[in-house]
Amino acid sequence: MHLEERALSFACGASWLYGVLSLPARPATRGVLIVVGGPQVRTGSHRQFTLLARSLAQAGIPAMRFDYRGMGDSEGAPRDFEQIEDDLRAAIDCFMAQAPGLEDVVLWGLCDGASAAAMYAPNDARVAGLALLNPWVRTEDGAARATLKHYYRSRLLAPELWKKIASGRFDARQAATSFAAQVRAAFGPKAPAAQQADSPAPLPERMHAALQRFGGRVLVMLSGADLTAQEFAGLSSGSRDWERLLAGPHVTRHTLPGADHTCSRREWHEQVVAWTAAWLRAA
Fold first, then answer.
1. From first to last of its 283 residues, what are the pLDDT tens digits of the chain?
2. β pairing state of 127-133 and 104-110
3. Are 31 and 99 in contact (CB under 8 A)?
4. Is residue 149 located within the same domain as residue 162?
């Protein structure tokens, strides 16, 4: 299908933001706004977001990607992923103005971009769905549990480790110290509640509250060889509230065995695109 790529500029407060719209000749009425994760720009690692937007547009789905304030070409000061609500709202305004046939949008995010999208979605009626790849729910104990369960288990089975031990190049003291630190972080005592009174609720709790308030459909895609993904996957086994939420009829879940955080191999990327497109068509 023929598609047009259009450079965009739009205001967010006193700053100008820049993005790219991938627009099919016969666009669907639901578009995808790509929310980048981490310190990335609208192209993404190994052109991940560029390729995603073009693939969706080839399937008839309008897609927009942009740099929020302080990133890439956009103006303004850099900001945390929990401080981009105005950027997302301005981007959706621009998207719907540039593609007049749009009725609503899906927010597609990676890592903390997925988390930002999830926390924004309940506050904008134009958001009909969320596609979340390896959402960021980092806590010290959650990361430690994921590391103990997934990193150390795979490490013990790795031939490289045993070769290192056999050659005398393995630092047992350093390894034991690191392992003990992870165990303390995962299972050690937490800070007293009094010390946490003025602190915001942990990120997983805020994410759960936002997803529970959101009335649309949710697609969750997790990489099998990514600790960020495994920390998110561990939420449902450690919390009945998360278990119930993720088992709901509005949530679709996929796991991509062996894939890394950004799905850097072609076959991994193509699978993520296929899952996204099929989920959008099923709406």
1. 689 999 999 999 999 999 999 999 999 999 999 999 878 899 999 999 999 999 999 999 999 999 999 999 999 999 999 999 999 999 999 999 999 899 999 999 999 999 999 999 999 999 999 999 999 997 666 555 555 554 556 666 667 766 777 777 766 677 667 656 656 665 677 655 444 556 789 999 999 999 999 999 999 999 999 999 999 999 988 889 999 999 999 999 999 999 999 999 999 999 999 999 999 999 7
2. parallel
3. yes
4. yes
Indicate if 103 and 239 belong to the same structural domain: yes
> DSSP code of 149?
I
Token pair of 190 as six digits: 């937490």
Same domain assignment for residues 226 and 260: yes
pTM assigned to the model: 0.86
Max distance between CA atoms of the chain, in angstroms, equals 66
